[in-house]
């Protein structure tokens, strides 16, 4: 729990790392599924059933969440434009690594960040493919220099 993180570890704050297991979109779907099954009521549902204070709290929570979405929307759009451009250029390991590192700030978001997650997955796949092609080329060029590493036809077919 983010409220009690200080009680979980005595490490220096600079050495701590927060890892999200689910995105906000995935958590929202889980909450809806649980509510539909009638298994339990969430805090948000309980708050919305209270006459006045719950509505105020829920609306304040929604405004805060909307503000966060808006503040992330523009940088995410800029990131998507840069990523799209990079995907159409010659592979650069450094540029891909930088983009993937920058994408981490958006990946936890809700469904509005689905496009960022999809493009990040495409970047990872393109990076893996480019590195495999580079490895294959180095083997072929090495064979011309009497290097004993061979490239199997199945591997080349897989790359194509």
Automatic annotation (TrEMBL):
Entry-linked InterPro entries: Znf_C5HC2
TM segment ranges: none
Region (Disordered): 38-72
Domain Zinc finger C5HC2-type: 1-29
UniProt superkingdom: Eukaryota
Sequence ranges of Polar residues compositional bias: 40-72
Protein name as annotated: Zinc finger C5HC2-type domain-containing protein
Lineage: Eukaryota, Viridiplantae, Streptophyta, Embryophyta, Tracheophyta
